[in-house]
Amino acid sequence: MLNNKWFACATLAIAAVATGCSSTGDKNANAPAEAVKPTTTSQGSAAAAPSGKTSVSTPAATQSIVYFDFDSSDLKPESKDVVAAWAKYLTANPTAKAQLQGNTDERGTREYNLALGERRSAAVSSALQSAGVAASQLELTSNGEEKPVALGHDEASWSQNRRVEIVGQ
After folding, report:
1. Long-range Cβ contact pairs of 60-65 (< 8 A, separation 24 or more)
2. pTM given for the model
């Protein structure tokens, strides 16, 4: 009986910690109203920013990740839409900024993966600048293998971790 109570308490404690660690807050909660970017409505048109201005909307979350092949920093053909969407937004909003966060899978040394993540960020930056985005609007970082989105140890997981996330600021 005592073991069942201990198990139930431990399970509830783990659930409480896991729930408390999730992030559901609005990233723009503390941003000034004019800095909050507009979003796209379900019909695809730009919604008005809180300041009442209408501009090109930030790309959807699904259009904010560029994936790479193993040990490569070459852009894949399917990344063109993501780059084009962000280039359109950033050129239409010259005061907007984006952080390019390079990531790798777990294979390779920490140092090698940090360098590879940086090369991947630089490749996306180069593509954006070729499309007219000012270098001053871009911040490049590398997480290496430190921030995986998939925790498995197989190709399906690794392919999700080989990415650059474009985060609007």
Report:
1. 64/165, 64/166, 64/167, 65/163, 65/164, 65/165, 65/166
2. 0.67
Residue range 40-80, pLDDT digits in tens = 333 333 333 333 344 577 887 668 999 999 999 999 999 99
For residue 145, give the nearest of 127, 133, 130, 157 by alpha carbon: 157
The DSSP line for 40-61 is B-TTSPBPPPTTS---PPPPPG
Buried b (16+ CB within 10 A) or exposed e, 59-68: beeebbbbbb
Three-state DSSP at 164 gives strand
Distance CA 17, CA 12 (A): 9
Contact of 47 with 41, CB cutoff 8 Å: yes
> What is the CB-side half-sphere exposure of residue 35 using CA atoms within 13 A?
10
What average pLDDT does range 95-120 have in this prediction? 98
In this structure, the strands spanning 163-168 and 65-67 are antiparallel
